[in-house]
UniProtKB/TrEMBL annotation:
<protein>
    <recommendedName>
        <fullName>Probable beta-glucosidase G</fullName>
        <ecNumber>3.2.1.21</ecNumber>
    </recommendedName>
</protein>
<comment type="function">
    <text>Beta-glucosidases are one of a number of cellulolytic enzymes involved in the degradation of cellulosic biomass. Catalyzes the last step releasing glucose from the inhibitory cellobiose.</text>
</comment>
<keyword id="KW-0964">Secreted</keyword>
<dbReference type="InterPro" id="IPR036962">
    <property type="entry name" value="Glyco_hydro_3_N_sf"/>
</dbReference>
<dbReference type="GO" id="GO:0005576">
    <property type="term" value="C:extracellular region"/>
</dbReference>
<dbReference type="InterPro" id="IPR002772">
    <property type="entry name" value="Glyco_hydro_3_C"/>
</dbReference>
<dbReference type="Pfam" id="PF00933">
    <property type="entry name" value="Glyco_hydro_3"/>
</dbReference>
<dbReference type="InterPro" id="IPR050288">
    <property type="entry name" value="Cellulose_deg_GH3"/>
</dbReference>
<dbReference type="InterPro" id="IPR001764">
    <property type="entry name" value="Glyco_hydro_3_N"/>
</dbReference>
<feature type="signal peptide">
    <location>
        <begin position="1"/>
        <end position="19"/>
    </location>
</feature>
<keyword id="KW-0119">Carbohydrate metabolism</keyword>
<dbReference type="InterPro" id="IPR036881">
    <property type="entry name" value="Glyco_hydro_3_C_sf"/>
</dbReference>
<keyword id="KW-0732">Signal</keyword>
<keyword id="KW-0624">Polysaccharide degradation</keyword>
<comment type="similarity">
    <text>Belongs to the glycosyl hydrolase 3 family.</text>
</comment>
<dbReference type="InterPro" id="IPR017853">
    <property type="entry name" value="GH"/>
</dbReference>
<feature type="domain" description="Glycoside hydrolase family 3 C-terminal">
    <location>
        <begin position="396"/>
        <end position="546"/>
    </location>
</feature>
Length: 546
């Protein structure tokens, strides 16, 4: 059913003209009047250097920096054009919030929602700094992270909620500030995203391959969903995380797929020019999400500075718009100033590593042909320490019944039974769901769930499953361990639970980019598995990866 609606949405998109798809609320800014970046207090020198370099560029060279190279030929998830004669490389932009994706010999970090659950400022910063070190080690100039309140988590059904810190604006703001600092302290530009009001996957953008249309939808939307909000709600709830990202000095902000009060987020004069660059005095650049660019003129005048990944818009079209006066030359200059200022401010023009990651995925032989050299540089260092600490401190105990010596902590049980596929390894391996960890929604992630899916995912170099850890401890405690990892075999689960003095049920929920959840129940028969085991074992412990 979902595949058929996806096909219908793609078919409809192919019949639409790119020039007629957009809407705009730029009535009060029909030409463009700024604001122009000046470097602020922190980036005066870098901005002056950027201006000096840009003054030597041709029109085409300026446009080349603002427009991504086509995703088909990009080395990274996104690449800007280079200006070799001025020593400006093709900048590498790469996912994501949980690690360098889809690189090998890099770490999979706990999701932002996981580190948010620690309420620990030091761990939030250390996680981001470790991420920044790994991105830099792989030669990535711009990390497409962190998720800065977009989504904030207005609905628990949102497919990308796992990528953010929290639905609480304060906690999200703290996480955003510290994460930007962590990334950029390691010399990597942070991309705070997705601005603004990006709170659902359904109808987010008909341009995309992962676009889900509900089976009962009366029609397929030719435009992204519009998030409509009043000014007070926007400033008090949805803006604070971005305020803190700007205060931390974020070099890049990614505009979102959705519309904002009827205007495409990537060309909305109110949120981009008036609020972000005006009220907040933001000095960095606004980058489109991939394929979130809808019109040439609208995006240029609306406040977007970089088009990604570079397919249908800008390029030669932007050259023409500047030549005929539709887009002022000062506007184009400001785009390039904003892009190059953080590049110089973070010292990326000095001894920055070359790109060293296999963006085609582990096992692919296509990447070395594009960019010969080592794609297997190991950047993990000792980051397992902060990863483990976050895992320990983020665990949340919801209920613990200690009647008759049961509950947690375990006291050397004689016969322990472990249930649920989430306790064990995926029999198909770590990469069964592809570069985006975009698993089947019917029975996703057969094995321990360590991350959600989509562009925010990352490969794990290894996973120590709960069953592995339990068996290691059991040897020391002389505990007999039995396990049953088939969530659907309730008959066997019942017979195993009867003979156990302690049972642990591992279950999960899964979220992924491109599709929202239908409900808040556990996945893969989890609710029934819990009830079956608990009905036979009065010391049943439930562990949920969610």
């Amino acid at each position: 059913m979902r595949r058929s609606f996806l096909a219908a949405s793609l078919a409809l998109y192919s019949s639409l003209s790119a020039a007629t798809r957009g809407e705009s609320r730029q009535d009060n800014n029909p030409t463009w009047s700024g604001p122009l970046a000046d470097g602020g207090n922190a980036w005066k020198d870098a901005h002056a250097k950027a201006k000096q370099v840009v003054s030597q560029m041709t029109l085409e060279e300026k446009v080349n920096i603002t427009t991504g190279i086509d995703v088909i030929i990009s080395i990274c998830a996104g690449n800007t054009g280079a200006v070799p004669r001025l020593n400006i490389p093709a900048m590498c932009l790469q996912d994501g919030p949980a690690g360098v994706r889809p690189a090998d010999f890099a770490s999979q970090f706990p999701a932002q929602i996981t580190v948010g659950a620690t309420w620990d400022r030091e761990l939030i910063y250390e996680r981001a700094a470790a991420l920044g070190a790994e991105f830099r080690g792989k030669g990535v100039h711009v990390a497409l992270a962190p998720v800065t309140g977009g989504p904030l988590g207005r609905s628990p059904l949102g497919g990308r909620n796992w990528e953010g810190f929290s639905s609480d604006p304060y906690l999200s703001s703290i996480g955003s500030y510290l994460s930007v600092k962590g990334f950029q302290d390691k010399g990597v530009v942070a991309t705070s995203k997705h601005y603004a009001l990006y709170e659902q996957e359904t109808y987010r953008n008909t341009d995309l391959p992962f676009q889900y249309m509900p089976p009962d939808a009366p029609h397929v939307h030719p435009l992204p969903i519009s998030s409509d909000v009043d000014d007070a709600t926007f400033h008090e709830t949805y803006l604070p995380s971005f305020v803190e990202a700007v205060r931390a000095g974020t070099g890049s902000i990614m505009c979102a797929y959705n519309r904002v009060n009827g205007s495409h987020a990537c060309e909305d004069d109110v949120t981009l020019n008036k609020i972000l660059k005006g009220e907040l005095n933001y000095q960095g650049y606004v980058m489109s999400d991939w394929f979130a660019h809808w019109t040439n003129e609208g995006a240029a005048l609306g406040g977007m500075d970089m088009s990604m990944p570079g397919t249908d818009f800008w390029g030669a079209d932007l050259v023409a718009l500047v030549n005929n006066g539709t887009v002022p030359a000062t506007r184009l200059d400001d785009m390039v100033h904003r892009i190059l200022t953080p590049y110089y401010a973070l010292g990326q023009d000095r001894d920055f590593p070359p790109v060293q990651l296999n963006t085609s995925g582990i096992g692919s032989d296509s990447y070395p042909g594009i960019n010969p050299g080592s794609t297997n540089v190991n950047v993990q260092a000792d980051h397992y320490k902060v990863i483990r600490k976050i895992g320990e401190d983020s665990a949340t105990l919801l209920k613990n019944v200690r009647t008759n010596g049961g509950g947690l902590p375990l006291k050397k049980p004689r016969f322990l039974a472990v249930f649920g596929q989430d306790a064990g390894a995926n029999p198909d391996g770590l990469f069964a769901c592809g570069n985006l960890n975009h698993c089947s929604t019917e029975h996703a992630n057969n094995g321990t769930v360590s991350a959600g899916g989509g562009s925010g995912a990352a490969y794990a170099p290894y996973i120590v499953t709960p069953l592995d850890g339990i068996q290691l401890r059991a040897r020391a405690d002389s505990t007999q361990v039995n396990w049953m990892l088939n969530d659907l075999d309730l008959k066997t689960a019942k017979s195993n639970a009867i003979i156990a003095d302690t049972s642990i049920v591992f279950t999960y929920t899964y979220q992924t980019e491109g599709i929202d959840r239908d409900n808040l129940t556990l996945w893969s028969n989890g609710d029934a598995l819990i009830n079956t085991v608990a009905s036979e074992c009065n010391n049943t412990i439930v562990v949920i990866h969610s």
